[in-house]
Amino acid sequence: MAGTGVFAELVDGDGVFKYYSSGEWKKSSSGKSVPIINPTTRQPHFKVQACTQEEVNKLIEEAKTAQKSWAKTPLWKRAELLHKAAALLKEHKVPIAECLVKEIAKPAKDAATEAVRSGDLVSYCAEEGVRVLGEGKFMVSDSFPGNERTKYCLTAKIPLGVILAIPPFNYPVNLAVSKIAPALIAGNSIVLKPPTQGAVAALHMVHCFHLAGFPKGLISCVTGRGSEIGDFLTMHPMHSGTAYTRDRKQSNDLVELYLHCPDVLICGLNIFWCCFTGGDTGIAISKKAGMIPLQMELGGKDACIILDDADLDLAAANIVKGGFSYSGQRCTAVKVVLVMESVANALVEKVKAKVAKLTVGLPEDDSDITPVVTESSANFIEGLVVDAKQKGATFCQEYRREGNLIWPLLLDNVRPDMRIAWEEPFGPVLPVIRITSVEEGIHHCNASNFGLQGCVFTRDISKAILISDAMETGTVQINSAPARGPDHFPFQGLKDSGIGSQGITNSINMMTKIKTTVINL
């Protein structure tokens, strides 16, 4: 169970989970806490500390100090500690998974998979970091016209400093370690601000790094309300970088953070890494960031284009998996199906048959469809459904909702004037738009302000590559649904879906800067 056994020291006498600073689990001097609502029961399930500005300032100062020593630690020693943390994550997958089930209603099997995948990511990052950071570059001056061989140039990658890491609710462990591990192997220190929904799972993950034996002050985890610490973290001068992942719900939190919101932080940084759904928010950040380099993933309206020569059984299976896994609460979920009219009826029938087999219920029962994360998220999804109904969409199933639980719904004959044709539901509702040409499908995809991922189903590989080239998205999957991963693959968004590229190697490089030494002969 959460907060028991090896994790018992995470909880204070009042049952509130502590924050992590100076290598210790601490109660906040505020005497206040933040409740975490169970999406299934819609009742408070956990509580976390409401940290103060003074506590945040102290842990950031400690992170700055700890980073100086850590940067001098040999690469192999950094990797050794990361391997220990990875093993502990896998060893303690059960309590971590239990937190994910209660906090974000993630199906039990998927919750356990997230913990194991996170361990694998940390181990891979340790190995990749030794390779990437263990290499430098040597240059000579006479390779440029007009120069003699009188200068030797040596380049190396050095850490940024303090990295602020902000994962989203939907993968609060995996998308935390995807920032923490690259930052640590590169010689940075980490301040983690977990999402409110998913904070306790993240605290359990941090304890695995604590047990691995990382130096005091190198890793911190702060929880609290934006009204108390938001602006303070936003403007703190000691951060050197931010690794940031955001979902649709917490993107809304980010908008509020400019006005003191509970979940999202922005800092004066050298690098700002974002991954959340909400292009307007990302644009606002980029304007505020000034000359600070940015790396953002801002979600998407991932289009699935089905050609008339496609394997419809394969396409239907991927549409259901891609559109409804974790109730559609993924940035890379299939968000709109664009199918050629000639095969639309056949495809819709195949998808309907597979949707009918999805189980709906409790995450503890490992149901396919579980409650969405908050009531406000459910209300937003319902608003899209109501709009589609009013404008004439064909409902392939009856719309059904109980609390935060929404049954899977396929909407056929969706038109471009419907909100769901463009907006990201982040829920188990999938629109189908019938097209008469490939060009029409590409046009709809590219008309979106998003450009994260897309996919195309066809037996003609030449056609598939041409369509991939035409789609304005960071990734195109051929004959498979959109997906983030494997975790070492590049992952990026175009347009309002982001700036820069992630993936283990890219993330390590983004956590460093180039240092040049020139030897004059």
Automatic annotation (TrEMBL):
The lineage of its organism: Eukaryota, Viridiplantae, Streptophyta, Embryophyta, Tracheophyta. Pfam families: Aldedh (PF00171). Keywords: Oxidoreductase. One of its GO terms (molecular function) is lactaldehyde dehydrogenase (NAD+) activity. Its EC number is 1.2.1.9. PANTHER family: ALDEHYDE DEHYDROGENASE (PTHR42991), NADP-DEPENDENT GLYCERALDEHYDE-3-PHOSPHATE DEHYDROGENASE (PTHR42991:SF11). Belongs to the aldehyde dehydrogenase family. It is an enzyme of class 1 (oxidoreductase). InterPro entries: Ald_DH/histidinol_DH, Ald_DH_C, Ald_DH_CS_CYS, Ald_DH_CS_GLU, Ald_DH_N, Aldehyde_DH_dom, ALDH-related_metabolic_enz. It catalyses: D-glyceraldehyde 3-phosphate + NADP(+) + H2O = (2R)-3-phosphoglycerate + NADPH + 2 H(+). Residues 25-238, 275-516 form the Aldehyde dehydrogenase domain. The active site is at E297. This is NADP-dependent glyceraldehyde-3-phosphate dehydrogenase. Gene3D superfamilies: Aldehyde Dehydrogenase, Chain A, domain 1 (3.40.605.10), Aldehyde Dehydrogenase, Chain A, domain 2 (3.40.309.10).
